[in-house]
Amino acid sequence: MLPPGIIAHAARLGEVRIRDLMSAQPGRAAGLLISHAGIELDLSKQRLDPPALTALTGHLETLDFHARRDALLSGGIVNASEGRPALHTAYRHGARVQGSDAEHLVDETQAQTRAFATRVRGGDFRPAGKPVSRVINIGIGGSDLGPRLVADALADHAGAGPELRFVASLDPSDLQHAVAGADPETLLFIIASKSFSTQETLMNGQAARDWLAGHVGAAQSGRHFAAASAARDKAVAFGIASDNVFDFPDWVGGRYSVWSAVGLSLEIGLGPDVFAAFRDGARSMDEHFATAPLARNLPVVKALVDFWNRNLLGHPSRCVAAYSARLGLLPGYLQQLEMESLGKSVTANGEPAPLPGGALVWGGCGTEVQHSFFQWLHQGGDVTPVDFIGIASHFASDDPRERVLAANMAAQGAALLDGVQLPAGDDPALAAQRSMPGGRISSVLLLDALTPATLGALLALHEHKVFVESVLYGINPFDQWGVELGKVLTKGILDGELSRYDASTRAMLARTGFVSD
Ligand code: F6P
Question: Rounded to an integer, what distance in angstroms lies between the CA atom of residue 385 and that of residue 362?
Fold first, then answer.
């Protein structure tokens, strides 16, 4: 599966000091810098050089990449196990979908969500005679993580409008906190669920309805609900007025759905124009992905580097450290996008995959994480590639805190790379413990500024990166069969059909009083 030429590059670069590569290849930094749509990717601290990248690009081309990318962007059946396209790019009006049925459908629903958002935002939608002051999105997975991330990331762009809250957990305190302090008559709940059959979302939706009925009466409570779903009938059966149900087609995957009606809470809370700018940023990345030469194509190159680190250099995880409080939810969002898409061991043809699939993604917010897990990154026994995500304008900011934030990010990359070897001196044991190995790799993704457009471009970059990796792995990135068994087994437990369960699970259910025997 891995061509010998690429393996040879990995062997050549495996033991090289990256500092030596920098001195030996003066043009290296520029060659490993790619920008588009207000995002710059700096790969110069990767254990990689342009010849290796060229070999990786060549390998991608042998996998029929151009045809596969075209199929993705023009509505081909790229999700074969579910027999459908993955046309989330239609919500960004990418060139390849212009004039298609998909685009017309998107236009129609975008006009509907925009009109509804404008009414809610302008105080004209009054479920109980009062304007809406708070919108509570009830959803989970892709129906939660995207909207939650974008709401938090673009909070400073919201202007006047209802505040946004999110409920995903079945822990009752989640809903309790979301409604706390609100006038029930001014609440709007949006149930976001592609399938409208997700257990957590339906239970939370019903709990919200019951809570609201206790305050405004059962007959009135339904007026406080809207839905974003690919299952309109189920949403209507739940009691949501048909006019307040906003459709999206089944060819939008859950973790790719923030651009669709699933973003309704954002369209209300941030405003339709901010939401449109967010989608425009993504469209710019779509165009770049569709047309830029592979060697200068941001999502393609990022995918190749992540693939290289995982499969050639053997690093099973990647850390995402966001140096912006507003991007604190990014690692969690990327976990679903990347791990639900690439966490597979069987190819799209049903054969055992020769490679282990996408890396584990984890991370947090800088500089906070410097005071928690960075010790492990610097001196732990594993080498883990780090993606530093920062804001370029912070480097020259008038606010000293932003400059210090940026300096910290730069320093961490340098420290991981260089390490330090302290002289043994009088206390060799202490010197050894204080020394740091260095040679640890990282990338920097710098956003010119955190705007709706750059955020949209950043998310689209990662969506396309995942697609490119799926081509390299030969897997379908758009299904998620691995989450199904757990759902079935939860139902079995709830139904009390325990004979198929192992002794440990049965003992726990008995010990805790879930079942009496
Ligand atoms: O169980 C996994 C999953 O299907 C995700 O892929 C999806 O984003 C999430 O559940 C929520 O699904 P829905 O939007 O249908 O409620």
Answer: 11
